[in-house]
Structure formats: C-alpha cells, structure tokens
Amino acid sequence: MPKVSAEHSEARRAEILDGARRAFSRWGYEGATVARLESETGLSRGAIFHYFGSKLDLFVALAIEENHRYISLIVERGFDDALRSMANESPEWLGMLLEIQGRLRHDPKFVEKMEGMSDDRERIAAWLQDAQARGELRDDIEPVHLGRFASMVLNGLALRVAGKDPVDVEPVIALLHDALDHRTQEALTE
Amino acid sequence: MPKVSAEHSEARRAEILDGARRAFSRWGYEGATVARLESETGLSRGAIFHYFGSKLDLFVALAIEENHRYISLIVERGFDDALRSMANESPEWLGMLLEIQGRLRHDPKFVEKMEGMSDDRERIAAWLQDAQARGELRDDIEPVHLGRFASMVLNGLALRVAGKDPVDVEPVIALLHDALDHRTQEALTE
User: Fold this and answer.
1) Measured between CB atoms, does A108 come within 8 Å of chain B?
2) Which ipTM was obtained for this model?
3) What pLDDT is stored for residue B3 in this prediction?
C-alpha cells in the first residue's frame, strides 16, 4: 500500500473513532444508532463499516484506544498525569464506557477482541520493573501488584467522575505516590 | 407498635432483601421479574410490596444496606477487613450493583432516595477524624480526602472482582495501609 493511502486510511479511522466516541457519550451504546453514528462522523454507514465491522468492533476499538492512551500517559509521564487526565474526562463518556465494559466483560467474543489487539500489558509491566530498578518505585512488592493497585485507584476515580461526585485529584495523586514510593518502604520496614 | 411485631417486621424485611439480592445477582435488574422475586423470597408480591413500594425501592434498600455494611466494617475493623470482604463478594452481585448504580446515578428520584436514608457519611467522617487524632492515620491531608481515596480503592477492587480478574487482596491492603499511615507522612516530610 502506498504511504499516502495508509496515512489517509489512518486519518479516516481516527475521524470515525472521534465521532463514535461523541455519539456513544451522548446517546449511550444502544442509543447510538447507525444514523447517529453517520451524523456524528459525517460519513456514510458504508464508510464506517468498511473500517470497523460492527458497532461492537467500534466500541472495542475505542476501549482499546482509551486503555492505550492511559498506558502511554503512565509510561511517558507517570501516574500523576494519568490521574489528572482521568479527573478531566467527560462523565458521560466514562459512564458509558464503564457500563458497557461491565456488561460485556463476560461475553467471550468481547474478551477475545480485547485480548487479541493489545500489547499494552507487557508495556506497563516493563515500565513498572524499570521504575523499581531506578529506585523510584518500592521493590518489596511485585510490580504487577503495584500496577494493579494504581489501576484500582484510576478506576475508582473513573467511577467517581462518572457519578459527577466531587473530585479533588491532588490528594489522590499524593496518596498514590506515597503508597508506591520507595522511601515509604524504607520508612515502614526500618 | 408492640416489640414482637417490630421484630417480626424487621425479620421479614431482611428475608425479602436476601431473596431480592439473590434474584438480582442471578438475573440482573431487568431480569428479576416480580415472579422471580416471589420465588427467591418465598413470599407473595403483596408481602414484598408491602415492605418495599417498588422494585427500585428494593434496589435502593439493597444499595444502602451494602454501603452501610462497608461503613460498619471500616469503623469497627478497619480498611483491611473491608477490602478482604470486597475481594470475597460474588462477581455477579457486584457487577449488577455497579451497573445499575451507574445507570441510575443521574436519576433525581434515585439520588433523592439514596440521600434521604443514610447517615453513614457522618459516621465515616467522625471515624476518620478520630483515627487521625489517635495518630493512626496521617493528618497532613484532610480526613475527607483519606476517605475518598480508600473508597476509590474499594470501588476499583469491586470493578476487578466484578470482572472476574485475578485478585490478590493482601498487596492492596498493604499499599492502602502505607498510603494512609501516619509514619509515611513523617518519613516523607522529614
């Protein structure tokens, strides 16, 4: 495939994802009809389903993209910025995402699609290990458990934002930081 | 009302809640029809709706009861036991609870019912303040933020259990503990 065409294809894909995200946020998953997906993306159903086979595929792609964005944020800029970004998400978007992910979580088709398309798990595992080696993160607890704890805090924050509950993210950042800090380990095991 | 009658009424109420919890876990909120609520509680619709005006009221009562149970666990036995209890919840029950709470969170009728029936917020606030005064919890961060952080971890764990993702609760307990510990504050501000 010539380079220009691949770029065009990538841009079109991103355009569809943007529109679909708006449609899902606004009308929920069921409410985001094909007509509404067309109107939010400005593209025909033919174009949309050329890039994504079904509405479920579109949702899965958005969920993977969202996950990928957070892994990148963490790896490139740390948990603080990931938490700040989460605190600024749209409640409607997060509410939709959490609800549909929850509903689909035990659907084998969904699980397979989510599994098959991402190497983000290894990326975060390597980053956690490096951060331990650099002495930033405590190393008395396995890296996988540090990562899970941080993701629980992120998901707990997501639930809070989705619920439009008051959010002051700075204390959350400070507390997660202290939980994972290498100096905490030293102080508490002395 | 004579004492025996109040006790009987309380027992009957608890019986209905138990059955409704089973019905919701098994068939989801929509799937828990009146017939299924009857069969799980072993009581007639007349008896059920004598105690709870509607299916929504039944759900709200269960959500409040669940919240109350966790507040009591925290206040009486601390965050460790609350996390352990959450790790052992039924995934089906938590999945249903999170999904329906999420869906109803912006419904004014639901919000009003949840608000009107609980003084648990003050109970946990007082407990956090006492724990700071006793020197157990750090006091460089407002108690409300310590409570919110712990509830984010609990909710993040609930999402994980609901998703049937692997859960090893002991590292979560250790990390939350260290985040909130008074000695962490001392170590990191020296």
Assistant:
1) no
2) 0.92
3) 59
